[in-house]
Structures are given as C-alpha cells and as structure tokens.
Design a protein that fits this description.
Number of strands: 6
Number of helices: 6
Oligomer: single chain
Largest sheet: 6 strands, antiparallel, barrel
Radius of gyration: 19 Å
Strand content: 25-35%
Structural class: alpha+beta
Distance between the termini: 46 Å
Amino acid sequence: MNEKLEQIGIRTDARYECIYTTIDDKGNKNSAAIGLKYFGEDNIGCRIFEGSKTLENIQKTKRYVVNITQDPMIFTKSTIGKLPEEYYTDDKEIAILKDAGSYIVVDVVDINEQKPENTPIDNDQSIFMIKGKIQEIVIKDESIKAFNRGLSGIIECLVNFSRYKIVDDEKRAEYMDRVIENNRMIQRIGDGKTKESMEIIKKEYEKN
C-alpha cells in the first residue's frame, strides 16, 4: 500500500487535503473537502465535525472514498453548496469522482467522538476521529499528487518577502503576521521539507 501512496505524494509525515465522497442508503452521493492523515501500512484517519453529511453517511455505511485532485472547482463546490451529479462516476454502490487523479476506498474500523476541549479548534460542536483501513487504491494519473496546504503557505510567505523591503511598516507587520500564522499551520500539517523551508523564511524575515 505505502508504495502506491508514495506515488501520489502521500507520506506519514504530513496531512493532505482531499475530497471525501460518500453515499447514503437512498443512493444520494455527497462530497466534502477533508484532511487526511496516513499512519502507515493501510491505516488512515480524518477528523469530521458533527452535523456533517459526510459524517452521517460514514456512520451508517462504514465506508468512504478519498479522491486525490487539485481541481479548485471541485474543492469549492464540495465546500460551498453541493457538487453536481455529473462530477461522479456511474457506480451505484459507491461515490467516486470522474476526474480524480487517484482514489482510495476505505472501510471504517473506529469512530471516536472527541469533545471540544480535546481538539485544537475552539468550537462547541464535537468532532469525530474516523480511523479506517485502505481496501483499494486506484491510480489513474500519477502526476496529480495529494495536496498539502504547507506549500501554499510557503509560496505566500515568499511572494510577500519579495515585497517586504519596499512596503510601509503597516504592511510589513501584516506580512509578519502571515508568517506567524503560516508557520503555525506548517508545524501542524507540513512535511519535513516544508518545515525546513519555513525556518529559512522566518530567519530572513527576522533579518529585515
């Protein structure tokens, strides 16, 4: 399993943003942008807030699909509104995205409710830790890798740094705030190279 996951950019040292697709008992398909954590072997996990349609479907069917895509429209429509039916394959028993570079079929092995005080997000809603076993990995386009938000944070900091010396103090403070926030995010979900890159960037900001 791990060789196939490495082919699509998934390793144990980071978290990835993917599109989770589920289906209910009436055949209605649903998609949501959710983070993925790979624990090694065939074990993966995610966290989902209560009230989510994805969580409801997973609790009932004990199955879901992780779709690997970098299509911004799929992420947008899966988060705001509802992804139209034409985005899915014609499969009746499972929800899979037509244009996913790869997809992972997962069977749920454990659903553990965590109270807000045990999560990093300040919210009254409970969050559920979903642990699953990979049953199948289908790679259609190896060039489409799982997306890690750390790279976006690095690029934002570098673009801002290229302007850092020529903007006023107010803008410089804004850029520094973004460095602090991106560093916080990268320390939580970034891989080794991303964290090393962030350290270099922080030192350069501090010099200037």
